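Much of what follows relies on a compact textual record of a protein's fold. Each token is a code from a learned vocabulary of local backbone shapes. The record below shows the convention in full.
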Amino acid sequence: MPVTESVPSLQGAIVRLRPVRADDVAPLADLLAHPAVARWWPGYDAERVRRETLHADDGTVSFVIEAEGRVAGLIQYWEETEPDYRHAGIDIALHPDWHGRGLGTDALRTLARHLFDTVGHHRIVIDPAAGNERAISVYQRVGFRPVGIMRRYERGADGTWHDGLLMDLLREDLR
């Protein structure tokens, strides 16, 4: 059974987060192939999107960010379930056509509220590329705070290692 069958839709102020469906694979693959997105999310094709959203075997929960009835982006969360370290992590990608409209901010707030209020987490992490200033600005707007630089954290589209910025959000910091 795909993990998305038990995932609720979440309504934000301007976006709806809904489980990924099979017919979302192509638009999500197109989104992740856009040069402005692929810079930060390299190596995605339809098969990888299908495997990591519809059939994730690592517990990742994926949502389509829907605006005006259209696929505008992807947002996912994963959970660390070890009781002494329990927390959630978020990843997000928004098509550049939707930038500057508040969709990313609303999607993050909506998912964070769900993770705090419904799932019961007290802390959420996010780990953008250290050079992704646009994303970092959005995350700070929601209340995420920088924790530190993770050196040579991820391999970029160019094949070289790039630094990542670890950020976290506590329930009381959510804006």
Observations:
- The CA atoms of residues 64 and 74 lie 5 Å apart.
- The chain has five helices and eight strands.
- The two ends are 35 Å apart (CA to CA).
- The chain has a mean pLDDT of 94.
